[in-house]
Amino acid sequence: MSSTENNTRSVSATASQNYCGENNSKSTERNVQLATTASADTAWMTHRSAAKRAPRRFFWIFAIVITTFTVFVLLEAFVIPRAGDGPIAVPAFTPSSPSSTNTLTTTTPSLTAQPWPPPPPLGLQRTSAVKSYVTSDKKIAVATYHIFDSDVYVANIKLSSAEQLMSAFASDTYGRNITQKPSTIATNVNAVIAVNGDFYGARSSGYVIRNGELYRDRLTEPTQQDLVIWRDGSSSIIREGDVSGVELMAKGALHSWSFGPALIADGQIVIPSNDQLPYHAAIANPRTAIAEIAPLHYLLVVVDGRTATSTGLTLTQLAAVLAKFEVNNAYNLDGGGTTTMLWNGNVINNPVGDGATGTVQERWTSDIIYS
User: Which of 80, 100, 116 is the last residue of a domain?
Assistant: First the structure.
């Protein structure tokens, strides 16, 4: 082979190698570009997906926080028991005259000398035997009446001292959501007669004065009506916006109940007609009420409802029944499933509690009124 041919082949081989090297280099560049593009696309898709998930994640976190907070608030308000701070310190009551602390033992004959039990009001007939308790300083008679298709239990109470009308807390403790069966509370204090109170522990406002001690001085609203029993055994209907709990104590308040509304004030029916009342007040329901006929002479009243034999009363009907007893002041207490009357610790009406209509059971409550 000539020298010229060898040179030609060598040049051709070199050119071919150079061409292949160039192609390999371009291919590598393209692969790098494709990989870079794919990586960028992947990153963009990942960012886009994360951006879509972020609002959802925030929504679920927010929902969990709100749900947890709501559950806690409900438990705190209605379930978790919490003892209160005890009575509020107030100046000692100083009677302005002897009548402020009067007791009937020094101003009237012995209660045993007065006819007992009292006759039923005109137009009412008793439907059961009278339960009676008589001592030298206390008289109690419980009779049942059937009116407005309802069984009405009336405890007629005459006392020689206002301090004989008492209130008791569940577990002997003032506080929120502290409850017991009314029969348990009544048995613990040896009550002869008792009814449920205003269930103060289900609320955080409304004056609470019991047995001469002020426990809560936070008003519900200025127009809230309360019943006050004074140390001389008389009563008044007051509005919380007109006087503070401390001022009531200074005037000689022995008890106050904050539920309502007032049914009778100064001998006059003050509850509006049914068409002017809110729904729960204008329909037939179990009811509990307290009334003062005269100083140291009271009525404790409960009405069965939501049963086959007793429908319950509207507040207008309840006021009409109490008016037959010629009361001075009458006040509505917590009713519905809470309505309970006890004689020597035993339930004598038919409370429906929290069960279905027609069932009979006690509802746990925060307080009772008793003697």
Answer: 80
Domain that holds residue 20: 1-80
Tokens 């994360």 correspond to 50
CB atoms within 10 A of CB 147: 17
Q: How many CB atoms lie within 10 A of CB 349?
A: 24
Q: What is the pLDDT of residues 214-245, one digit of tens each?
A: 999 999 999 999 999 999 999 999 999 999 99
DSSP character string of 343-363: ETTEE-S---TTS-TT---PP
- Number of domains observed in the structure of the chain: 2
d(CA 86, CA 203): 16
Q: Which of 91, 102, 88, 89 is nearest to 250 (CA)?
A: 91
Tell me: the pLDDT tens digits for 34-58?
Answer: 445 555 556 555 656 655 666 667 6
- Rounded distance, CA 225 to CA 292, Å? 16
Q: Are 200 and 367 in contact (CB under 8 A)?
A: yes
Is the sign of the CA dihedral 30, 35, 38, 40 positive or negative? negative
Cis peptide leading into residue 119 (ω within 30°) = no
- Residue 17: how many other CB atoms lie within 10 Å: 10
